[in-house]
TrEMBL record:
Name of the protein in question: Fe2OG dioxygenase domain-containing protein
Positions of the Fe2OG dioxygenase domain: 211-312
Pfam families (alphabetical): 2OG-FeII_Oxy, DIOX_N
One annotated GO biological process: defense response
Residues spanning the signal sequence: none
Keyword terms of this UniProt record: Dioxygenase, Iron, Jasmonic acid signaling pathway, Metal-binding, Oxidoreductase, Plant defense, Vitamin C
Cross-referenced InterPro entries: DIOX_N (IPR026992), IPNS-like_FE2OG_OXY (IPR044861), IPNS-like_sf (IPR027443), Oxoglu/Fe-dep_dioxygenase_dom (IPR005123), Plant_2OG-oxidoreductases (IPR050295)
Reactions mediated catalytically: jasmonate + 2-oxoglutarate + O2 = (1R,2R)-12-hydroxyjasmonate + succinate + CO2
A GO molecular-function annotation: 2-oxoglutarate-dependent dioxygenase activity
Family classification: Belongs to the iron/ascorbate-dependent oxidoreductase family.
Length: 363
């Protein structure tokens, strides 16, 4: 990652642009016509676009009735195979903690610009306050700012990179990250069982509980005077293993690709949105699919979301699990470390599924 030391152009904070009172967005945020959110495919069925991703109640996993547990496992398996996305409720993370997380980070983005600028990031690590992904000069940018930080492994935690304001922020990061990492560990075991693997096999492939990589990106999507011309986050699949998203309950924005259509996710109260990343697609030999998604913006409301990325240890080789490689289904991906893999998105920025698809080796 050391080759990415600086941004190719001066950084402009999107929030500052939005608050300046502009009525038209600068050209470098205007997407090509085929990438704009206002366009729907000619064969689009509007009713299909209005469906929601699966919602799964994890409480049934604790039921004494084996049938309820099996039904929940089947629902998760189906969601991973057919959608790559699902929402979970009764997941064990307190509603109060979820609310504090959103409120605290909204307060951070409400601070004066000079306070936030103290945490400005660089592309070598992305850690801190940022406004672009990718380092290609002249790239069309997304309408968003963000804050990115490392939580796991513990050796990467750098509290000086975490905001000191609001005063509750650093303690909140610890509490929230611990709870969401624990939930991801539980989900990893369920995904492993559904693949017919040992309960801890996927987790061990990631390096084990103490060695996994976990990082938090808090997204701030300012209101936009021309939301039909841009995106808060361009279409992409997540490069890591598993993503746990705490959405803004009051402003929808996440869209998931389903076939040729984009489905706008309707957040369920007190739910997390879970999605499969590219590394999980590789490990499962494409039984589980990472799916393209993007974020639309709003003309009258800002939006805040928190994405916890649960990733493999960065220097471990990730390849299809041996049990999932057969004569009829050979290994689709060659071994590669996560460090090697994510360099692509850190250079190019969000690029659909170009990276993971480029790795496939067909007989």
């Amino acid at each position: 990652m050391n080759c990415l030391q600086s941004w190719p152009e001066p950084i402009v904070r999107v929030q500052s642009l939005a608050e300046s009172g502009i009525t038209a967005i600068p050209d470098l945020y205007i997407k090509p016509p085929t990438k704009r959110p206002s366009l729907l495919p000619a064969n689009c069925n509007q009713a299909e676009v209005e469906v929601n991703i699966p919602v799964i109640d994890l409480q049934n996993l604790l039921s004494q009735e084996e049938s309820l547990r099996e039904t929940t496992l089947r629902s998760i398996s189906s969601a991973c195979r057919e959608w790559g996305f699902f929402q979970v409720v009764n997941h064990g993370v307190s509603e109060e903690l979820m609310k504090r997380a959103r409120d605290t980070w909204r307060e951070f983005f409400g601070l004066p610009l000079d306070v936030k600028q103290e945490y400005s990031n660089k592309p070598s690590t992305y850690e801190g306050y940022g406004s672009r992904l990718g380092v290609e000069k002249g790239a069309i940018l997304d309408w968003s700012d963000y804050y990115f930080l490392h939580y796991m492994p513990a050796s990467l935690r750098n509290h000086s990179k975490w905001p000191a304001l609001p005063s509750s922020c650093r303690k909140l990061i610890e509490e929230y990250s611990e709870a969401t990492v624990r939930l991801c560990g539980t989900l990893m075991k369920l995904l492993s069982q559904n693949l017919g693997l040992e309960e801890d096999q996927l987790l061990n492939a990631f390096g084990g509980e103490e060695n996994i990589g976990a990082c938090l990106r808090v997204n701030f999507y300012p209101k936009c005077p021309q939301p039909d011309l841009t995106l808060g986050l361009s279409e992409h699949s997540d490069p890591g293993g598993l993503t746990l998203l705490l959405p803004d309950e009051n402003v929808a924005g996440l869209q998931v690709r389903k076939g040729q259509n984009w489905v706008t996710v309707k957040p369920v109260p007190n739910a997390f949105i879970v999605n499969i990343g590219d590394q999980m697609q590789v490990l499962s030999n494409a039984i589980y699919k990472s799916v393209e998604h993007r974020v639309i913006v709003n003309s009258v409301k800002d939006r805040v979301s928190l994405a916890l990325f649960y990733n493999p240890k960065s220097d471990l080789l990730i390849q299809p699990a041996k049990k999932l490689v057969t004569k009829d289904r050979p290994a689709l991906y060659a071994p590669m470390t996560f460090d090697q893999y994510r360099l692509f998105i850190r250079t190019k920025g969000p690029c659909g599924k170009a990276q993971v698809e480029s790795l496939k080796s067909y007989e």
